Structures are given as C-alpha cells and as structure tokens.
Amino acid sequence: MRIVGRIAALFFILAPLGLAQAAGPGNAAPAQNEAPPAREFWIFFDSGQFKIRPGDASILDGAAAAIEKLGRPKVVLTGHTDRTGLHTSDVRLSQWRAEEVKKYLVKHGVPADDITTVAKGESDPRVPTPRGVPSEDNRNVHIELK
Predict the structure, then answer these.
(1) Alpha carbon of 108 to those of 65, 93, 102: distances in Å?
(2) What residues have CB less than 8 Å from 129, skipping those under 6 apart?
C-alpha cells in the first residue's frame, strides 16, 4: 500500500508539469515509430466530370487528417485532364476538379486561405498518352501538402 501511495503522490506532483499522464483508454502514449503523415494524395475522375466519386471520400478524409496533423501546411490542389477534349475546356474542367476538392477539404475543416488551386488541363500528364486516348490516370487532382 505504501508504494501505491507514493506513486499517487508522484503523479500529482508531475501531472501539472505535463510530465505524467493517467493510464487508461484514450490516453495511450504516442507510438515511438509512428510514420509521418503522407504529403501527397491523388483522386481520380470520370471522363468529362468534376464531381468527387463516393469512393474517393476516404482519400480526401485522409488528406484532411494529414493536414490537421501537420499543423496547417500549404495545400496545393492541381487539377488535370486526359488528352481527349479541347484545350480550353480541359483547363476549365481541371479547375473545376481542383475547386471541388477544395470545397470538400474546407467543409472538413481545412482553412480556405491555406489552399491554392492550379489548373493544368491536359499539360503535365501523370501518364504520357497520345492525343485522343482516354486515361483515368490523367483525370485527377494531385493534392500536395507543403
């Protein structure tokens, strides 16, 4: 019993200094070898579309969690298209894609002022393809946390 009393007294001395933490659910110590959060994410779109697919919500949720964990990094959203449309409409579509991702992230707690959107259209493709060849890999928004 004496040891338990001394441990309790030590806890009450160290706790206000932030040097002790009560054990229990939700109070586990952070893992020593915890990997840093990812800084790049990709989501993909259907041809000619800018609406986020339901399956991509988990990727965007992961991006929002990484942003929070990193403490408000600058977020760059770069929209892309494949090489099947007209250049002017592809640039517009890539901007709409980036703006949709921005709306999602802002709705999930990311400050709008921390987000920059870029529209690349068909330039700078993820996977080089000939003109007119559809490619889901190139219909995307690249999310970078800097």
Answers:
(1) 9, 23, 10
(2) 82, 83, 135, 138
Domain count, the chain: 1
Does position 120 have pLDDT exceeding 50, yes or no? yes
Rounded Cα gap, residues 76 and 105, in angstroms: 12
| Residue appearing with tokens 């802002």 | 106
Q: Which residues pair with 80 in a beta bridge?
A: 121
Q: Which domain holds residue 58?
A: 36-145
* Tokens describing residue 13: 């001395």
Q: Which pTM does this prediction carry?
A: 0.77
Residue 116 lies in a domain: yes
Question: Which strand (E) or helix (H) includes residue 104?
Answer: helix 87-107
Q: How far apart are CA 12 and CA 39, in angstroms?
A: 40
- Locate 86 and state its tokens: 């007209």
Could you tell me if residue 115 is inside a domain? yes
| Cα 55 from Cα 36, distance rounded (Å) | 24
Per-residue pLDDT reduced to its tens digit, 55-76: 999 999 999 999 999 999 999 9
SS3 118: strand
Neighbours of 56 (CB within 10 A): 18
